[in-house]
Amino acid sequence: MNLLRYLILGLLFGVIMTKSEAVSWYRIQEMFRFDSFHMYGIIGTAVVVGALGIIILKRLKVKSIHGSDLKLTPKKMEIPRLILGGTIFGLGWALTGACPGPLYTLLGYGVYVVIVVVISAIFGALAYGMLKDKLPH
Hints:
Layout: H1 2-19, H2 25-32, H3 38-60, H4 79-96, H5 100-109, H6 115-131
Helix pairs in contact: 1-5, 5-6
């Protein structure tokens, strides 16, 4: 039953991403060229909703799907690491025209060429997982 809830949330996410035009390559290019506020408004709204969601989760002492306490540990604010990671993420976003969330929405929408980007992202995450202990953190 829990998986059904996640499927419904995923479908809702995909509909919202499509209707808000966050999956549009043109909207993303407008953002990177500073031609439109549209995507900045979506991202800003997501940050506010996410922050409020975390505050609510902490106050209600919500448990994880496995029944354990949620542990939200703050990340270290290491500027070089953040600049490098943000640059890599931003370059990938600008080149592909999508960040990870909309990639799956685009697949569901029938844009099958995105499978190359999804597979590349999965391999990138796997490579990071294997090299994580050897990288400076």
